[in-house]
Amino acid sequence: MAKYRTYRDPSITHERDIPLTEAAALETHPALIAAINAIATDERPPRVIWKAPTGAECDNIVMALEEYIYMKDFEPTPNGVYQWGADHVRI
User: Fold this and answer.
1) Rounded distance between C-alpha atoms, residue 64 and residue 31, angstroms
2) For residues 32 and 65, is the Cβ–Cβ distance under 8 A?
3) Among 6, 15, 20, which Cα is nearest to 45's?
4) Residue 3 pLDDT
5) In terms of C-beta distances under 8 Å and separation of at least 24 residues, what long-range contacts does 66-70 make, across chains too?
6) How do residues 18-75 score in pLDDT, each as one tens digit?
7) Concatenated DSSP letters of the chain
């Protein structure tokens, strides 16, 4: 069965994106940064979402994260926990 993407490939970047190389400085898993970048818009850029996501944005970030793990863009963590600054996402 073919795998199809719902969210953009994390290797595709836009000028407004948070570079994955900033993951350590932001204490955020790179897959979460990619997911945040994927759902960002000009009205809600990635850094705004990273700091204060809406509930709907959180839902979409988790779905993008799950897709990136399923598509093998990122390796899953052993415990299913993905750090997001002082918080985390568990899948």
Assistant:
1) 9
2) yes
3) 15
4) 83
5) 66/91, 67/5, 67/6, 67/7, 68/7, 68/10, 68/31, 68/34, 68/35, 69/31, 70/3
6) 999 999 999 999 999 999 999 999 999 999 999 999 999 999 999 999 999 999 999 9
7) -----SS--TT---TTSPPGGGHHHHTB-HHHHHHHHHH--SSS-HHHHHHS--HHHHHHHHHHHHHHHHTTSSPPPTTSEEEETTEEEE-
Find out whether 82 and 31 touch, Cβ atoms under 8 Å. Answer: yes
Confidence class for position 2, pLDDT limits 50, 70, 90:
confident
Amino acid at 74: F
Q: Specify which residues 87 forms β-bridges with.
A: 84
Q: What is the C-alpha separation between 51 and 1, in angstroms, rounded?
A: 37
